[in-house]
């Protein structure tokens, strides 16, 4: 909802406003037009009127609309950047997939750097994009029939303060588990004939290991008929306090190739503050427990967690590197709808976040990791990004395909969003499942029919 003293702006322009703390309280009016071979944008902020002209030609109506949005955002960013005396790391870019924009430029026969420079993206982030594209070589492809399967298990031991997922403590939702497993099994069986070249499977949460061993096996058994080609297979696993040798052995027996140990921080003080209910010692225990099974392992960290100082975050990065997982994902704290943190906080303070991000990039690079995917979200602290880092040869196919929207993504379970990528038309069709578990259970027959329509050949 726009505040009363902010004049109406298009949603993409409001995304620019939100990048600057305090900008939503300003009176801002925008007027754009195209005249005499130039896009003209007039921005009036606190009574001061500024006019911007960008000379440009366009090939068709779609291109014209794209340029119109680009120069409107640039004009507004220019005014606010000057007003707040601040340059942002991604400049006027507001989309969640900078690398997708880079690929679009490359696929149109243009280098992406000029556009990123024009939009005010820092040299550090332009270099980051170049590194990501390089790391994706041999994985990234846009080919009809490619697909990646997602299975949603929205169950956790407890809910963290920053979490926006529909998860609730598993003890409070356990009564739904038998019906839920039956429902996703029905969905999985129905989509077998709809999947072409399956590149990866990802069972995510929540915390999949919050399920009992027998319950987890029922899910893995339902997935088995779809994964017949030995493709990458991730079970997110999740919080270290849910790990058991039995669950790890079960995953190995069903061909799982990759798991996630979601540490978030190695500081016991931070873990307690965000409601994780596990200790740093249990992170080490989970790594040791998983080591004999030969999985590729991802470890998640979050920069900017409530009250965590720079030194503590840097220590977490160092500790994660010392454990030598194949992937380390560095997230930036984000205010997400439905999270307790968003209910209590209007805006995240940037604090030493830029230094945290800089340290993670330097330390991970020095340890031999390369950035292989990145994405951004609204309401991220400091307007930064999330980056997945990988050792050579261990990039996660699922993460690349989903972030670049380069393959179909059939998804089952509550709050799962299926995507059909129509390559020859440059568009994506989406089908979202209900977030609420009882509502989802009631709509499974309808969802099966809708997925048949979406992915049917």
The total count of strands amounts to 16
Number of domains: 3
Calculate Rg over CA atoms: 23 Å
CATH superfamily of the largest domain: Aldolase class I
Mean pLDDT: 91
* Principal-axes shape call: globular
Unreliable residue stretches: 1-5, 336-349
CATH topology of the largest domain: TIM Barrel
Protein model, in words:
The chain is an alpha/beta fold. It has 3 domains: 1-86, 2-Layer Sandwich (Double Stranded RNA Binding Domain); 89-135, no CATH class; 146-418, TIM Barrel. It contains 16 helices and 16 strands. The protein has helices at 11-17, 61-84, 98-107, 113-118, 123-135, 170-173, 177-191, 213-223, 245-253, 268-273, 280-290, 310-323, 340-344, 353-366, 397-404, 437-455; strands at 28-35, 38-45, 48-55, 146-152, 155-156, 168-169, 197-204, 232-238, 258-264, 296-303, 327-332, 370-375, 386-390, 411-412, 417-422, 427-432. The protein has a 9-stranded mixed sheet, sandwiched between helices. Strand 8, helix 9 and strand 9 form a beta-alpha-beta unit. The radius of gyration is 23 Å and the shape is globular.
Produce a short descriptive summary.
The chain has 457 residues and is an alpha/beta fold.
Break the fold down into its secondary structure elements and pairings.
Elements (H helix, E strand, L loop, with lengths): L10 H7 L10 E8 L2 E8 L2 E8 L5 H24 L13 H10 L5 H6 L4 H13 L10 E7 L2 E2 L11 E2 H4 L3 H15 L5 E8 L8 H11 L8 E7 L6 H9 L4 E7 L3 H6 L6 H11 L5 E8 L6 H14 L3 E6 L7 H5 L8 H14 L3 E6 L10 E5 L6 H8 L6 E2 L4 E6 L4 E6 L4 H19 L2
Parallel strand pairs: 4-7, 4-14, 5-6, 7-8, 8-9, 9-10, 10-11
Antiparallel strand pairs: 1-2, 2-3, 11-13, 12-13, 15-16
